[in-house]
């Protein structure tokens, strides 16, 4: 293996590491958003049996999407106390 092949391999590994680091944050937000929206719907289905419904609007979707499970807990507590 020649020296220039080793340099190309190191550059390739550095680029792969950089791409993974850049895509990690948007992927985490996407997964958190999907999980938050699913939990928002589940909380409405379960809550409908006891007369509790979270309104699904832009604000609640953003809170559930960005914060995930803690966002759903916040929305439920906010709905109970307001």
Automatic annotation (TrEMBL):
Transmembrane annotation, as ranges: 6-23, 30-52, 58-81
The family database entries (InterPro entries) matched by this protein are listed as: BofA
The source's domain of life comes to Bacteria
The answer to whether UniProt assigns keyword Nucleotide-binding to this entry is no
**Keywords for this protein:** Membrane, Transmembrane, Transmembrane helix
NCBIfam families per the record? spore_BofA
Name listed for the protein in its UniProt record: Pro-sigmaK processing inhibitor BofA family protein
Q: Which organism is it from?
A: Clostridium lentum
Write the lineage as a comma-separated list.
Bacteria, Bacillati, Bacillota, Clostridia, Eubacteriales
């Amino acid at each position: 293996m020649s020296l220039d092949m080793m340099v190309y391999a190191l550059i390739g590994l550095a680029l792969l590491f950089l791409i993974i680091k850049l895509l990690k944050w948007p992927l985490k937000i996407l997964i958190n958003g999907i999980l938050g929206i699913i939990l928002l719907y589940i909380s409405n289905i379960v809550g409908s049996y006891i007369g509790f419904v979270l309104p699904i609007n832009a604000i609640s979707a953003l809170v559930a999407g960005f914060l995930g499970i803690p966002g759903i807990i916040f929305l439920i507590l906010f709905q109970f106390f307001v």
